[in-house]
Amino acid sequence: MPDSKKYLHPESIKRISRMELRARHIVEGFLSGMHRSPYFGQSIEFRQHREYVAGDDLRHVDWQVWARQDRLYIKQYEEDTNLRCTLLVDISASMSYGSGPLNKYEYGCTAAASLAYLALKQQDAVGAASFDERIRGRVPVRSKRNHLNSIIESFGSQSLTDKTDMHVVLSQAAETFARRGMMVVVSDLLTDVERLLQGLRLLRQLGHDVLVFHIMDDDELDFPFDGPTRFEGLESADSLNCNPRSLREGYLEALGQYLERVSRGCAKSMIDYALIRTSEPLDAVLAKYLSNRLGMHHKN
Amino acid sequence: MWQFTFYALTWGFLLTLLPLLIHLINLLRHRRVKWAAMDFLLQSYKKHRRWVWLKQLLLLLLRMLIVALIVAMLAQWTPKNRILEALGGATTHHYVLIDDSLSMSELTGDATCFDIALAEVRRVVRQSQADGSPHRLTLIRFSAAAGAARSPEQTPSSSVADVLAEPIDAKFDERLEKKMQTIGVSELACGPLEALELSQQLIADDDADTTRLYIISDFRQVSWGNPTVVRDTLNEIQSSKVPMEFVSCVRQGQPNLAITSLQPEPGPQAAGVPLFVHVEVTNYGNVAATNVQLKLTAQTVDDQTNTDPTVWMPDIEELPVEYIDEIAEGETISRRVQVYFPTTGRHVVHASLADDPIRLDNSRWEVIDFRSSERCLVIDGDPEQRNAFFMQTILQPGGRASTGVSPDVQPVSFLRNLSMEQLATYDAVYLMDVRELEESGVEKLMLYCDNGGGLAIFAGPQMDLERYNERLYLDGKGILPMPLRRQELLPPRLDDTPDINIEGSDHPVFRNLLRGRNPIIRMAHVDRYLQPRQDWNADAASGVEVIASYRNGDPFAVEKTIGNGRIVFFTTTFAPLWNDLARSPNILYALNLHAHVSTGRRKRADRHVGDAIEVQLDSAVYQAGIAFITPGEEDKQRFQLDREARKSDQASLISAVLGGKNGQSETGNSGVYDAIVKPIEGPPETRRYAVNIDPIESDLTTVNSRELLSSLSPVRVQWRYADEAGGEWLRGDLPPNLALMALLILLLIGEQALAFSASYHPTQGGGRTV
């Protein structure tokens, strides 16, 4: 099956195609579009007055103010620009776990492909990178329609090995994709929390609008195992013989603390965080997320 | 502590290693899961490692314990440990006191009360067996306890019980049935006191954890009407915290008729002389009995020709049936029936009624010793022997007529050389106008009367009154009933008042003289008599009674009782010297007199079932071996018991005893008993005895249960009728196997919970087992 068919589910695409992928924060772009640009340009939406300095375009001088106050002020307008969306997809070994039809990696890739399709459809530019402990593959940010195949193929060409180191990965991503835009992290985030939050904060500091799709399997969230079981680490050599129910309470407690820390850290850095179960229908999840985000955008 | 019914199954305890083995196998059979979130898992493991290990260890031990418990149950473990006994393994000892007195033979439907009582015992056993915990049973019959109480030195209390502290196990039924075949309702009259006292002793020495006492009886008024007798004993038992239950085998007593007496009337018991027997029938019911037929038979046994004494084959003469129209409730009706035995011997009279709820009290036996004649000694002081003449005339009229009395006329000197044994062969002695008696003679007569001999003293002109007062009256202690003053002439008759006033008297000596419209006693004339001292008065307390008087009030006849003997003193002559009695039909009073004074010789108390039959023999005449022939339960069935007579208190006598202290069961059946004694020379002799049931057992009136329980207060007793559902006695503790079962269930629940907690069970809705 071609990767484009593999990760683009018609039902999901059909459902979200009428949605818009809106940048929540000001992003950098060069095409006029639906996203607010950090650059003040031609726009109908007035933003502010600023005192004239030498070199400013005289076309932006507010002559009405000069006539009343005899002072030169520049009129600045909000300028819509196109979105530069970068999809960072975790391909570490832990993403290979899955109890349903899709494992976390497949689910994450599908979600990323759907977002890429959506962005390209609204003429935004999309790039992608896959990572484990570091960035493994890059697809430059483009807004061409046929760019989607390149992105999808990049997801399918990776092998699921090595452990995730989010700080390194996100630092590399910040360097690689220097222009401000939307950074969508698709991962199970099974890494050191502090390192993860450091990386995310770095992106925010660089002006990126950061979205985190935290992909978790139902087993990982509910830990429903029974009977004597030997758990072997996907990203480590650790193993444990146990009766899972006896550890379930402690496991869920540790997981809850971890999720709480991630959630709070993201909120603190104004990062959109969405915990997604692989059992949930992807279209519903994306539709819900995008509609929420659109609502938040209009509020702002 | 470790007692098992099936020891072979204890090998099953090796199965306790099975859970350990399964656990070890499971360690090798872990399912593998490639897991991403190992960090959280490891965190949880580090935090709960000890608790997880502890739960697993507990689970393992629990499963091993469960297997061990199952094996213990299968092997029927009987715990002896106190702690485990608290779980329900305590031993319960059932003391069952069962009433086997005659009244328990009452038929209710097809079964007797005793059958119902035995069924109750079986029920106790069944319930104990079903209970499963250790039980023991002690069974004591009232009669056995009563017998042991009679001779405690011969019967250890522990040997009285039919079943003594036997464990109620699977084979107990067999043993109990065998035992029950050997016991039956007795013919004895016995109450509960002795059995209660015995059980109190046994309970005091009992080491059982729980003790229960059952008294299974018919609770008749005669035995339980005065419960204060047993209250103290019951109170003592209750103080030992022994629950008690009264189980009544009958709800209400049925009407019952019984023959309560069968005795010969006073009179000569001689072959060829008719004899009246007195029969009494009592109605113990609460309704009148009508059309009662009383059957009597005269049974003759020729002991000389009977070769097998164990077979009761007498010649039976059925006497005319006595019809009694009605016997009111509680009333006793008596009948006189004449019997006639032409030959000598110890003959039997048997009376019977139709069967009713108590069969055995419808039958009564009497043995009467018919001799060729009764002997009386006549000593006449009249020089012309006129008194003796008239006495002989009336006692031996001659021809075919026989009174059954043979007078032996002897002079006064005859007493001097007469031994006591010789004197004892006389049924009565007549002293007629004897001048005086030597002291030795007085002593012999005194002893003779004391032993039941009869004495009649007639006054006369020859008597030395002073001597009589001195030697025979002895200040009221002698054989003369009254002190003598002088001869006195009876004043001439001035009206129709008879000389001898016996009007209103019902004394047997004069009873016949009052019959008819014109009693012959009125024709009697008395001229002279001996007057008593003026200061003398008949003292009933000392056994002296004036039985007839003259019209002037002076005594005509005075009677005195010494020991078993009767003495009658007539203040006038027997011969027609001072009166004309001997010349008229009034002389017949002499026959009555003989029958009356000789009664003491024949008098004996009714011998009831269980009483002793003592045979005394002169060792110079008889051999020591005695063969007792006892009746069986069937009419013709008899058994022989050989006994050796032993020395008694009197040097020349040897004696053997059947029944009584030796064991009341030896005389436990009513009927005719024989004692065949063997003289050193001559053929064997048969002594025969009648043994009858005690009539008090015929009264079937039952006590009111509420009144009984109330009168026993503060003793608390549970009352139950046998036809009511029982089982309340069941001990509160659980039986060991049931306790083990309960413990097993608890352990299984705990194991399931622990196993679920330790993740050995799938969750509802299906857990991921990968």
CATH superfamily of the largest domain in chain B: Class I glutamine amidotransferase (GATase) domain
Tell me the CATH topology of the largest domain in chain A.
Rossmann fold
The CATH class of the largest domain in chain A turns out to be: Alpha Beta
| Content-based structural category of chain A | alpha/beta
Strands side by side in the biggest sheet of chain A: 6-5-4-7-8-11
Strand content of chain A: 15-25%
Largest sheet of chain A: 6 strands, mixed
User: What kind of oligomer do you see?
Assistant: heterodimer
Radius of gyration of chain B: 40 Å
CATH class division of the largest domain in chain B: Alpha Beta
The CATH fourth-level homologous superfamily of the largest domain in chain A: von Willebrand factor, type A domain
How many E strands of chain B?
34
Number of helices of chain A: 10
Q: How many domains would you count in the coordinates of chain A?
A: 2
Poorly predicted runs of chain A: 22-33
Helix content of chain B: 25-40%
Specify the overall morphology of chain B: elongated
Stated plainly, the CATH topology of the largest domain in chain B is called: Rossmann fold
- Give the integer mean of the pLDDT values of chain B: 85
Commentary on this structure:
- The complex is a heterodimer of chains A (300) and B (770).
- Chain A is an alpha/beta fold and 300 residues long.
- Chain A folds into 2 domains: 3-25 and 83-299, Rossmann fold, CATH 3.40.50.410; 35-81, no CATH class.
- In chain A, 40% of the residues lie in helices and 23% in strands.
- In chain A, strand 4 (84-90), helix 4 and strand 5 (125-131) form a beta-alpha-beta unit.
- In chain A, helix 2 (10-16) packs parallel to helix 10 and helix 4 (104-121) runs antiparallel to helix 5 (147-156).
- The radius of gyration of chain A is 22 Å and the shape is elongated.
- Chain B is α+β, with helices and mostly antiparallel strands.
- Helix content of chain B is 27%, strand content 28%.
- Chain B is elongated.
- The model of chain B is unreliable at 727-734 and 764-770 (pLDDT under 50).
